[in-house]
Amino acid sequence: MTFLIIFLCILLTAVVLVQLGKVTELATSIRGEADAQEDLNTRQGLLGMIFLVLFLVISLVTALYYKNWMLGYGPHASASIHGDSIDGMFNITLAFTYIVFVLTHIALFWYAWKYRGRRGRKALFMPHDTKLELVWTAIPAIVMCFLVVNGLMAWNEVMGDDGDEDIEIEATAQQFSWTIRYPGQDGKIGEKDYKSITGLNSLGQVWTDTKNLDDIIADKIVLPIGKKVRVRITAKDVLHNFDLPHFRVKMDAVPGLPTFFYFTPKITTKEYRKNLSKYPEYQAQDPNNPEMKLWETFNFALNCAELCGSGHYAMKKIVEIVSEEEYNKWLAKQKPTYFTSGVRFSDEDPYKNELFDIEDSERAAAFKTTFESTMLADDKTILLDKVEFAFGKNELTPLSRYQINHLASELKRNPNVSIELAGHTDNVGSDETNQRYSEARANVVYNMLRQKGIDENRLRAVGYGEAQPIAENDSDAGRQKNRRTEARIIAQ
Amino acid sequence: MATITTTKISETDLLIEEYGYDDHFHEHHDDDKFQSSFITTYIFSQDHKMIAKQFLITGMFWGVMGAMMSLVFRMQLGFPEESMLWLKPVLGKWITVADGIGTLAPEFYYALVTIHGTVIVFFVLTAGLSGTFSNLLIPLQVGARDMASPLLNMLSYWFFFLAGAIMFASLFLSTGPFSGGWTAYPPLSALEQASAGSGAGMTMWTISLVFFVVSVLLGGINYVTTVLNLRTKGMTMWRLPLTIWAFFITAILGILSFPVLVSAFFLLMCDRALQTSFFLSEIFIGGQALEHVGGSPILYQHLFWFLGHPEVYIIILPAMGIVSEVLSVHARKPIFGYRAMVYSILAIAFLSFIVWAHHMFMSGVNPFISNFFVIFTLIIAVPSAVKVFNWIATLYGGNIRFNAASLFSIGFVSMFISGGLTGIFLGNSAIDIQMHDTYFVVAHFHIVMGVAAFFGMFAGVYHWFPKMYARFMNETLGRIHFWGTLIGAYAVFWPMHYLGMAGVPRRYYSFDTFENFSHFANINKFITIAAVVVFALQVLFIINFFYSIFKGKKVTSRNPWGANTLEWTTPIEAGHGNWPGKIPAVQRWAYDYGKDGKEFIPQIVPLADGEKDNGDH
User: Fold this and answer.
1) Domain carrying residue A395
2) In the predicted model, what is the mean pLDDT of residues B438-443?
3) A253-282 pLDDT, tens per residue?
4) Is residue A153 included in any domain, yes or no?
5) CB-based burial of residue B447 (10 Å sphere; 0-12 exposed, 13-18 middle, 19+ buried)?
6) A27, A128, B15, B138: which has the fewest Cβ within 10 Å?
């Protein structure tokens, strides 16, 4: 509404101005054109001079006023090492162009004022002046050479793909968010393929590439100070741009064409905040968080700088620069995505039928604990929870062999222990069938342990059918619990 | 200051009669079948002067459209909290209402930004500027009856009109007009899944621009042919006014570069409709992995900017030509360094073809290749600087007549300096790392090719309005228009440098998500208010324009500015064919102002004994 009123006011003013224009035109014709034009030249030339002074003053004053908000000035010295050369180039260029800006503007408006039309004056006939023209062709040419040489030196320094990074991370853009991937312990980022993208595998990591297995998807970018970082920049759908203004980093993310950018952070977030606190601009209250001051809530942030659709303005990731120690601590807490995303043991997992050594030893340790505590307990039954059979068959699932191995190891470690292997089923199917299944399955485990070199005197296989449920058989979950294999210690 | 007497007028006729070239024009044109009815005179006219007016007024329509779009998105940026409910009657579903507060939909914000850019660049500053003045001035200033092909010239306008009609219709699509930026980078522009506007909106946008290219090519071929073949007796190339040089080179740029844009659009259309993969590769969108592999989005950018960069010179060169002419006439001095001006136009035009990738330093092209583009880009600063120095030198020692036309020319020089200098930052790839796609870029190109080109256009309109309508525009309003726009345009675009230097990216619908960009609410408010004021001043200009067509002060002499060029030797209201009798012959260059004690010596006046012509060396 306010706009409408303002707009109407302006329109009304326009009508008044039109009337004014008509009146002055009339007045001019009464006074005589030549007189009027001469007065007008003086007034307009003077207006030009006033404009010149105001323009030069206001442009300088406002620039100084906003200086401490601008990157490269005040508290905003570059947060990356290469950024200083960019800021330096900016300032050199600013110095040259500002001189030209001021001098040409003074000449433009000063000449306009000085050579305003007056009756009886004759204009100079000066069609050209070769010497002058050579001079003002040469000067810009020399300045440009200087700027080109310096600029390109900085450019090639910043943009070279040297491969000498300490850390490589990957940023993948999509409408409208970033996914940040760390290489994990091997320091290498795994392959990905856009056709492998699924609900569980948001980047399309190719799991057969073992470099992927320790890769970490983090919810923010955390980097240590003083380490050279290579960011591999990719996109899933449309063009995006990886923009870190405080680090003077910017590069398009292009679907089908990975790009990169190197930078070395040289100040931690904490130190940067401390610098900000020295400037009154940042002592103001944070409007989003009235308890805090602006410098306290400051964060480096990643944003998108290439139009990517309706959510382009909201692709944010916090960037945190920390000491190397804090970085390592943070990194240690991050779990590889392969294990946290639900991919592990899913149908997408090429290794779903085997355990990695670390998983195996974790399970072995856990089983050992269970086994030992059971030896001390009254209830001598050990549920072999990882021993599973294919549906309706007497074949072990591939992963079952690990727990049977663990059992064998414990039996070897405790030579006096004898066990009964007990097969149980749920109540689906006839009693006879179930009895047969439970016996057969107990025998499968029995035979495997025998193969592992456990003496037959220490083992007994028994099928209990559906007779000893440990849960109600009225739900899938209950029935699943009842289908089980147990090892019961019968002598120790 | 010109003192025109009636004897002078008849002297013009005498000179034309004595030296002019008799093409027996009146013998063929007693019964003018081309200008006999309302329709052939005002609508399907083949008279270059009428076509020029059609281009101008259509350009003004699109100027208003583009400016109003910018006001809407400026309000979003300046006053994001303010309700936009009052715009609902116009924008309909693009204003979403919650709790009685109307909010501009982000998709439509981006559509506004996109269409604003497209129509201002193509419809206003290409068609409205070079379409208008090339048409009006080429035949008049080279001494031709009309364009080489009046029919193609007429078609050129009507293809432009058609392009505009299609673009206008696309605004009413239910999925909205195209919203992927005026550069239309794929994959965003290629995939409907990526943006609602990339569906039918993009299809209509592309078709519109293809028709527009047809218009530019028909016009351009005409301009080049007319300048090369239809110059009057004695009009050597080195006697052409700088306006004609500028229009001539502009037309060549257009002919060479616009077809490349069409080829880019053609391939893009194949990707959109025929499942080809010129620009698309390895895309996962909308929960689906697309089959496209092997294409490169960067290829499109190369093709686009192969037009896109010459395009900015297609916009600015005509303005430069106009300003050179207007400054010289009103300073009552020859343009300083005529030849240097011509050579710098040629140099700029040549260089404009080998700098396109400076728009792509940060797009993923091999950084090594950027070295060459930096060098060529910064070389452009040299001919540009020469032009600026020459304009200033033209004022030096002059006897300047201030009026709206000369003021806008001076304003042009100021804008061209301010905007051009920031180009030196952006053209240097190292600095572009930081400045690319920030408000610094927005400030740069709006000042140097937006505002400056508009200033050139305004200078031309005020200066040649008497030739177009045999009346003057109101000078007082013109001066208010000038000072208001000069101050207002700087108020709008100067602070954007600061935003850019603070790292604020362009094309952001809102700054709420990023605390680091949200500190500048006051600057954004200020810019928006300034933009509203500047818009109001342009409304004033339009009022002045139409009012003056009918009620302006009448032109009483043929050559009201005391100018040397041929258009001022035609009758005040020149008919079809421009000169009623013979075509005037040219005896000298166009810039003999203040020579040998004479205030001005028109081109039709023969050289005195032993007098040297300053054009032909």
Assistant:
1) 357-491
2) 97
3) 999 999 999 999 999 999 999 999 999 999
4) no
5) buried
6) A27
Which residue of chain A is at minimal alpha-carbon distance from B301? A239
Q: Which of A306, A340, A374 is the last residue of a domain?
A: A340
Distance from CA of B502 to the nearest CA of A (A): 4
| Cβ(A369)–Cβ(A246) below 8 Å | no
- Tell me, yes or no, whether A210 and A334 share the same domain: yes
**Beta-carbon separation of A305 and B436 below 8 A:** yes
Whether the predicted pLDDT of B3 surpasses 50: no
Please check whether residues A427 and A484 belong to one and the same domain: yes
Domain check: are A300 and A327 in the same one?
yes
Whether B249 and B316 have beta carbons less than 8 Å apart is answered as no
Of A282, A305, A340, the last residue of a domain is A340
Is B495 an 8 Å CB contact of chain A? yes
Which of A71, A97, A125 is the closest to B421 by Cβ? A97
Chain B nearest-CA residue for A289: B515
Residue B560 in contact with partner chain A when CB distance is under 8 A: no
What pLDDT does residue B27 have? 62
The residues pairing with B202 across neighbouring beta strands, listed in sequence order, are: none
Lookup: tokens for B35: 């200008």
What angle, 0 to 180 degrees and rounded to 10, lies between the N-to-C axes of helices A33-65 and B475-501?
A: 10
Domain at A234, CATH number:
2.60.40.420
Assess contact for B548 and A22: CB atoms under 8 A: no
Residues in B touching A256 (Cβ below 8 Å): 280-283, 293-297
Global pTM reads: 0.93
Residue A244: enclosing H or E segment and its boundaries? Answer: strand A240-244
Domain borders along chain B are 6-32+42-597
Q: What is the full DSSP assignment across B402-419?
A: -SHHHHHHHHHHHHHHHH
Same domain, A336 and A423: no
ipTM of this complex: 0.93
Residue B545 in contact with partner chain A when CB distance is under 8 A: no
Give residue-wise pLDDT tens across range B95-140: 999 888 999 999 999 999 999 999 999 999 999 999 999 999 999 9
pLDDT for position B30: 53
A159 shares contact with chain B (CB less than 8 Å): yes
B370, A155 in Cβ contact below 8 A? yes
CB contact under 8 A, A97 and B422: yes
Within an 8 Å CB–CB cutoff, is residue B165 touching chain A? Answer: no
pLDDT band at A389 (very low <50, low <70, confident <90, very high): confident
pLDDT of residue B35: 67
Q: Which amino acid does the sequence have at B293?
A: V
Looking at the structure, tell me whether residues A402 and A450 fall in a common domain. Answer: yes
Q: Which of B335, B385, B438 comes nearest A136 by C-beta?
A: B385
Contacts of A299 in chain B (CB under 8 A): 515-516
Interface of A with B in 463-492 (CB under 8 A): none
For residue A331, being part of any structural domain is answered with: yes
Number of domains in chain A: 3
- For residue B329, the chain A residue with the least C-alpha distance is A123
Q: Is residue A327 part of a domain?
A: yes
Residue A142 lies in a domain: no
Residues A297-322 pLDDT 10s? 999 999 999 999 999 999 999 999 99
SS3 B544: helix
Tell me which amino acid residue B463 is: H
Within this chain, do residues A61 and A30 fall inside the same structural domain, yes or no? yes
How close, in Å, is residue A430 to chain B by CA atoms? 46
Please answer whether residues B113 and B181 qualify as being in contact, where contact means their C-beta atoms are separated by less than 8 angstroms.
yes
Q: For domain B6-32+42-597, give the CATH number.
A: 1.20.210.10
Strand, coil or helix: A171: strand
**CB distance B288 to B263 below 8 Å:** no
Cβ A97–B187 below 8 Å, yes or no?
no
pLDDT, residue B34, reads: 63
The answer, for B19 touching chain A at a CB cutoff of 8 Å, is no
